[in-house]
Amino acid sequence: MSGLKHFLDLNAVSKDDLREILDIAIAFKHNHSPLGGRYPFQDKSLALIFEKPSTRTRVSFEVGMKNLGGNTVVLQGSDIQIGRGETIADTARVLSRYVDAIMIRTDDPEKLAQLAEHGTVPVINGLTDDSHPCQIMADILTFEEHRGPIEGKAVAWIGDGNNVANSWIHAAAQFDLILKLACPEGYTPDERALAWARENGGEVIVTADPSEAVAGSDLVVTDTWVSMGDTDADKRMKDLAPYQVNEALMGQANKDALFMHCLPAHRGEEVSSEVLDGPQSVVWDEAENRMHAQNGILSWVLI
Ligand code: CP
Ligand code: NVA
Q1: Which of 49, 52, 56, 104 has most ligand 1 atoms within 8 Å of its beta carbon, as the pocket-test mutant?
Q2: Is residue 157 one of the residues assigned to a domain?
């Protein structure tokens, strides 16, 4: 045991620690550093490795870290020696000599695991093909700001059972919420995530029917039909077409249900503009909260 605190997935951090991270995030958001001092990350450096594109993750980590006194180094996968075959293990050993934590956005979750195994500093998952835990921390924070505790609330996931859906499945068990996923055949979420959540008390229902998922829900969530790295866009657009979140579908959720989307959104595809820009949508708060949630994560791993 290294004693390092990594943030690799929602099912790899304890319930209590996830709650502590959210408490720190809220304190930072309201300008009360729970650690004392205006610059708790002073003299700390974070490397951000991107093997896939990003707007929110990059900006929110960079600005969050710098606002709290830290430094960041952004490394595009194609610009560093990983792109020419240097191993993840060697990269982890070297970066650990320079920085205090490493965030990586990559395709293969095995690369994330290797970074954590061979580095000697905390590693944060900034999205893999399997999960997106930072996003769901921001989503929980956003829900609770608007509606109070998420425990016992019903969340509907509509569309592709992708990486973001998998982190929601982990969250079902970790935050004691009820998750109903509506995904067509061939797009159902990761069986390992479902099994883990159910073994750990998560109430998770998978259906092919969007109406069944949204009925009685307090929050409706969707994501792009074509994730980064997906190569079958035409087929996906056809198969997922009946799963658009529009006003008709939102009308079947609870009256005060919120709408969330991790963004980037594809208007007219997985969500209509009326819903994205409508009164139930909290997507801009959700995007802002990426920074506050991650400040909580950074504080938890660094200090
Ligand atoms: N939601 C999210 O992770 O956005 P980016 O891909 O822009 O980082
Ligand atoms: N499922 C999307 C999320 C983007 C933030 C993707 O992986 O491309």
Answers
A1: 56
A2: yes
